[in-house]
Amino acid sequence: MRILAVDDDPSILELLDKVLDAFGYKDVVTARSGREAIEILSRPNEAFDCLLLDVQMPQMNGITLCEEVRKLPEHTYTPIIMVTAMVQKEYIDEAFGVGATDYVTKPFEFSDLKQRLSDAYRMAAERRAAIEVLEAEADFELCFDNSPDVRLSDPQCFGELPGFIGLAEFENYVIQLSTMHSKAAKLVAVKCTGAEQIYKTSTVSEFRSAMTLAGTAVLSANQEGRKVATYWGNGVFLVIYDNQVNLRVDQLGAPLPEALKDISGDATSGRPFGFQVSEEVILKAKTKMEALFLIDKAVEMAEMSEGRAASIG
């Protein structure tokens, strides 16, 4: 795996180089600034499998650098891990908001960094493969019944929707908020109850269009505060709100059908759209596993919340 490490502190770069070499990563390139990193990434045939970025750097900080890297087509899915001493929630929010894959705080455990690198690389490879399958299926407009590689349970990335990030990034974000900033945010799951029927009777592009509409409705149903969302699979969306947002389940659930009507026009005609909304789950955990359990808890509540369903179509 080829890695680009960016930090304005030469001692940190030297440490990273030695640590990565000990992990077996022999091909490591370093940069002392964001501008130098962009120059390296812009060179022809200069490909990297993972980027490690510091946050606090002069001229161009790591957040801006991450945002600029994501504008490069060849690095749309390249894992970007922030390695920084900045633990404040605002930096974590901004990093994931501009496309960071993960967030590691200094001083870091070597074994933890090694696992994060492995997870990030595997995730990027899986996402590239999934995108290729979706694009191939959409080109031929095949039905899902004939597409064993595309499942209803598969997560999908709706990066074109403002506020949406991939599921793996979302899980890492939940872990950071739950363990480092306990009770600073809350999680809600929203299930589109018509997803299974649409999946069975639609092409890849039709199903994705329907879920895009549903995702847009989920985000637009409540206009208050900052929101980060992802698509979990099985028609379930996950949304994180800052804890100061005065959110009630009925406030989110009631506007969903109207929001869908406003954005869909005739696109949902005949489609059995409905929404089930979980109770809010406060993000508070001591461990990674406890944090991920909070996601499962929200999904389970959404799937069981038929009494709070709102329908359309």
UniProtKB/TrEMBL annotation:
Q: Which residues carry this modification: 4-aspartylphosphate?
A: 54
Q: Does the keyword Transcription regulation apply?
A: yes
Keywords (A to Z) from UniProt: DNA-binding, Phosphoprotein, Transcription, Transcription regulation, Two-component regulatory system
Organism encoding this protein:
Ruegeria atlantica
Q: Does the keyword Nucleotide-binding apply?
A: no
Protein name stated in the entry = Response regulatory domain-containing protein
User: One GO BP annotation here?
Assistant: regulation of DNA-templated transcription
GO CC, sorted alphabetically, is: cytosol; protein-DNA complex
User: In terms of domain of life, where is this protein from?
Assistant: Bacteria
- What positions does the domain Response regulatory occupy? 2-121
One annotated GO molecular function is:
transcription cis-regulatory region binding
